[in-house]
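FORM 7B: Structural annotation worksheet

SECTION A. Query
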Amino acid sequence: MLRIVPGKDRSRDGSIAVEFALVFPILLFMLIGMIVYGGWFWLAHSVQSLAYESARASLGGLDATERRQLALDFVASRGQQMGVPVDPAAVQVTSDNQTVAVRIGYNVSNHPIMTLRNLTVPPPQTIEREAVVRLGGY
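SECTION B. Predicted structure
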């Protein structure tokens, strides 16, 4: 028998379940967003690191052709190890007498981290990063 006592609140047994049902979708959306964007930022950092390291690796080349080949070889060998298998066609290497620039474009749509991207506001499909190093004359 339910007895109402003046000045006391009624039973709130179901209120926690209702509050959870209202808040849970928002929390789930935020959690998925953190996973997707955290993975995207990790991939963007990896692409930037790969661009910079391949530009540095190309400094040993004697001419523009050799520098380009050294950068492409580095991207091919280290990209897979870093979890960023970059297509060689997406790598542009430019060189002049003073600098070497490596630009990498990476399509993240097939990466396993991005499988949840459709459950939230999706990040850009392509990550493009560039690194420029000087050939000397500091």
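SECTION C. Observations
The longest helix spans residues 15-57. The chain has a mean pLDDT of 88.

SECTION D. Sign-off
Analyst initials: ____
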